Amino acid sequence: MLTALEKAGILVEALPYIKKLSGKTVVIKYGGNAMLNDELKEAVMTDVILMKYVGIKPVLVHGGGPEINGMLQRVGLQSTFVQGMRVTDQATMEIVEMVLAGKLNKEIVAMIQRFGGQAVGLSGRDGGLIKAKKRFELVKNEAGDRVPTDIGFVGDVVRIQPDLVRGLTEQGYIPVIAPIGAGDHGEAYNINADVVAGELAQALEADKLILLTDVEGILRDRHDLGSLISSLRIGDVEDLVEQGVISGGMIPKVHCCVQAIEGGVGSTHIIDGRIQHSLLLEVFTEKGIGTMVVK
Ligand SMILES: Nc1ncnc2c1ncn2[C@@H]1O[C@H](COP(=O)(O)OP(=O)(O)O)[C@@H](O)[C@H]1O
Ligand SMILES: CC(=O)N[C@@H](CCC(=O)OP(=O)(O)O)C(=O)O
User: Fold this and answer.
1) Distance (Å) from CA 276 to ligand 1 centroid
2) Cα separation of 171 and 169, whole Å?
């Protein structure tokens, strides 16, 4: 048990971080398996609300890959991934939007409301928030050349109109955003939630981008938890991707951190969403956790 003095010490340790981040925007991406557990979900929402009440402007972008997988299975649709991106045909796109914008977005909003915060749920199709275009994934062929590959209704962000989100944070709401964009003709595109979080962080000139995931951070050896890279320079990222050290779903994460840093976001972090209150540990303690991607 902590003594009263130790408890007070923990609160005092948070003071410089509260001071530094008060009034600043922090974009948090929450998704994957870390989203399936109710206790963890509640801890994440509590952390986000706490951030808000100490003067930070949190913006939540959520994924929901495993939930989409579950629903696709229920309706008998197969799903495949190319470099961490879901190949998305028309029928899959409908399910993706139903699960992300219809189910999960509203559940998260309801949970924040229940715990005492004020949240507004949006998808990128609302209010022209995310303009998207079809993404062609660059995939290596046998000769080792990167060839643009059609993966259906998967989108790249063309433009973010951040005013709506800014207005909400200024009025004290916590925006909760589903990663779907609108094409030229209003059609829906499935965008990886990490990509949306990175782009939004840049558009909002956020101070921090935090990606919550289902591993400790970036590991040099996936089978060795002691090999966590706590600080990774953006110049070293491509080598690690080329060597296969960083693969699958970690690729969009690390790339969006690189882009966010290059786009002016103060700091980017990939942290373990399976640890209760990992957000608080990252934001309000000296040591932080996970991998910080730095210039
Ligand atoms: N070097 C690495 N270190 C840690 N995880 C890695 C690494 N390379 C690939 N991964 C994989 O990336 C996954 C995280 O990506 P993803 O499953 O898309 O997460 P989320 O669903 O949280 O967005 C990890 O669970 C792990 O399997
Ligand atoms: C193009 C693409 O892959 N989109 C993702 C969108 C959801 C997401 O990113 O969810 P997680 O963060 O939980 O993985 C998908 O269809 O799964």
Assistant:
1) 18
2) 5
Binding-site positions for substrate read: 64-65, 86, 190
Average pLDDT, the chain: 94
Known binding residues are 64-65, 86, 190
pLDDT digits (tens, 9 = 90+) for 37-94: 889 999 999 999 999 999 999 999 999 999 999 999 999 999 999 988 999 999 999 9
From the alpha carbon of 66, which atom of ligand 2 is closest? 13
Q: Which two tokens stand for residue 152?
A: 């259906």
- The angle, 0 to 180 degrees and rounded to 10, between the axes of the packed helices 90-97 and 65-74 is 120
Question: How far does the centroid of ligand 1 lie from the alpha carbon of residue 236, in Å?
Answer: 18
Smallest CA separation from ligand 2 atom 7, residue: 63
This model of the complex carries an ipTM of 0.96
pLDDT of 2 higher than 90: no
List, in order of start, the domains of the chain with CATH numbers.
12-71+92-123+172-179+191-294 (3.40.1160.10)
- Separation CA 8–CA 48 (nearest Å): 21
